[in-house]
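User: Hi! Is it possible to get a structure for several chains at once, not just one? Here's what I have:
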Amino acid sequence: MKGTLNNYLALTFVVICSTSGWAQFRIPSMDASLKGGYSMVNGSSTDFEGVIVTGSLMIHINEHIAVGPFISQSIDMNFFENEFGFEGSENLAEQSMFGINARFSTSRSKVLRPYLNLSYYSVEMVEDFGGYRLAQKTTGLGGGIGLMIRLNRNLYLNAVEVNARQIKDDIFFLEGANLILELQAGISYNIGRKK
Amino acid sequence: MVFFMVGSCSIIKDDDIQSQEQLDETLRIFHIQFNEQIDPQLPEAQSVLGFISESSDGKITKIDWGGAIVPREINSNEGASSTMMRFNYLDVNSVPASITANISYGSNGYPSKITHVADDANFEFESWTYTYNSSNRIANMITKRTVPDGSYHIEINDELIYSGNKLSQVIRTIENLVAMTTVNHTINVTRNSSNVISKIFYEESPSKIRHYIQQCPNPDCYYYFSEFQVPMNTGPFGNPIVQHTSTSRGILQRIQLTDSRKNGQTGEVFFPERGPDAFVIHPLLILPDLFIDGKEISQVFINDWWVVNPISNENLFNITEDRNVFVKYKYTVDPI
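Assistant: Yes, the chains can be modeled jointly so their relative placement is included. Here is the combined structure:
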């Protein structure tokens, strides 16, 4: 009987402690973002361009700084070569990016919240010739600016975001290309406490 | 967690080519395709497909051309002698035929002989035999053309002369072995300050420019002018425009041959009163990269692959749009 009581008390203690532990736990404040836009890489005689979607999860360190991972994937991309006023060759292409982003924004305001971002990422590029594919993976550092517009308590419109992303190694099928330019827009939803 | 799972998924597959070295080692031409576009607003019509066979060391040894290649009406005009194989979708008199091109190589690794064989009769109706100078540039090209009944048999001997490794002159001798006649021509090549071919003269009429070549604003693109066609200095209209498109790695992707009536512009149509030109299958045009300076040499032999207004059917006259013929090269990494 005594043992059963001890077991009951122990269980009660664990439950109470757990409950109070959960009560202390708060989901960190973060923004989940989904953006779409256009990405372009210009080589000396080549273009690698198309539509991309980007998802990110930005965890707020404080009101001005947020850090988190992002992924970006092309959904309709093409590789153009030798466009000299004549129709050049065109192949399907693909681009994928995964990295970490740091966002530096102004304080929360009623309407506008401009921000700067810095990112480090690995990027994969593929050119599809039908019978074979060329592919390469490299890394890079990038930066950009953007503007969020507050729609309601939790929802922001990413009205515009412009990024310039450096490509560290030469992509062997993209001669002379060393910069990815992106123009994106989307939405961000704020989860957790406001920062 | 989801982010890291998704982010760790790669779009690169194991069999993708991931370096220039790997590309150079594995890439093979799979087929050559002829497309014709009667009107730039219309889709291309595919008519001819040539499948490539290669030797174990990756050299092209055979092209099996499908149907719709036409042994053209034999004609040796003014010293020019076009190949007997023509692709022309618009030519209602076209007779599909099955042709094989066989390519053999010499000890220097460059083509020593190319033949066109009519598969149905196993008949070698034209051939090109090449010899080379010490820098492996074509020194001599002997072209032979004949027909099964022996009513036509012609041999053309082209001696190529270089100045500082740049082609400067071709001495052409045409022997008609049926009529027992011999005609000699000299083709003189002049170049501009950038060493690019600017004019091609034929000795038979030294005061005239038979062909005049003007470089487009773009690399690997040339406008052609001909006395056959339009007066000089008219502009790049009514003449073929040739555009080679290679990748940044130098791999030939496409040759665009434009029978230009408007040069892509709106408004006045130039020279609608004649039928479409034909572009014929000639080794120097189709496979320029088999030879050193192959693209440039193919310009000098323009008469051998460009046939001006060959169609007598007046229903095909009054062409008012640019007409394109595309020679497209498809590559694979798979062993053929």
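Residues 160 and 170 of chain B are 5 Å apart (CA to CA). Chain B touches chain A through 39 residues (CB under 8 Å).

User: Great, thank you!
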